[in-house]
Amino acid sequence: MLGGRLVFTFPSISTSLTTIEAINAEGGRAPSFMILPGQVLLVKYFDNDIPNDVTFTTNEETGSGFSSDMIALDWLEHWEEATRPGIKMRRGIIHSGEYRILVIDGHGSYLIKEFIDYCWDHKVVPFLLPVHLIYILQPLDIGIFRLMKAQHQNILAEQVRFGGCEYSRTDFLDVYNEICIRSMKKYSIIHI
Asked: GO molecular function terms here (predicted)?
């Protein structure tokens, strides 16, 4: 029990994966960007209802489920393509050319020259949150991710209630879209 609430953990089989999320002031969100541990992505990871616009990758350098400088650049390109406002035409999208702001934490991969150059080249102003205020100012950590963790715990509780006692990476990916649907609502994003 944690704070009067039953919390499910599986310490002997836990592995970490990273999901990079981005929201906007209108309550929208960019497609997720998931970093899975391992060197290759198995077909079974994709037999679920995760939307096709979600990007999956691995950290080829370490095999971990954590970000790297190259992955951060890949995410930035993913975010830029998915969120750049424009008008759809038969010959492609015509962009407005306006600057946008990207609020980021102090992760080292966001501070490399290539990341910053890409931002400026694509009219994105990178705004780095002050290191000592990150916890207070990070809206995703104290808002959306807290909701996502709570929904994940609710889904685990449902599975345990119906006899489930093993939980794998594939099981998590099977419920990931449901976690997002339950927690990444427009109202929740706007009011964090």
From this structure: nucleic acid binding
CB 157 within 8 A of CB 8: yes
Tell me the C-alpha distance between 186 and 189, whole Å: 5
Structure confidence by residue, pLDDT tens digits, 66-114? 888 999 999 999 999 888 877 666 666 666 778 999 988 877 788 899 9
Contact between residue 10 and residue 133 where contact means Cβ atoms under 8 Å apart: no
State the architecture of 11-83+96-190 in CATH terms: 2-Layer Sandwich (3.30)
In angstroms, rounded to a whole number, what is the distance separating the alpha carbons of residues 39 and 74? 17
The length of the chain, given as a count of residues: 192
SS3 187: helix
For residues 75 and 79, give the distance between their C-alpha atoms in angstroms, rounded to a whole number: 6
8-state DSSP, 84:
-
Q: What angle, rounded to 10 degrees, do the helices at 69-83 and 113-121 form?
A: 10
- Parse the chain into domains and list their residue ranges: 11-83+96-190
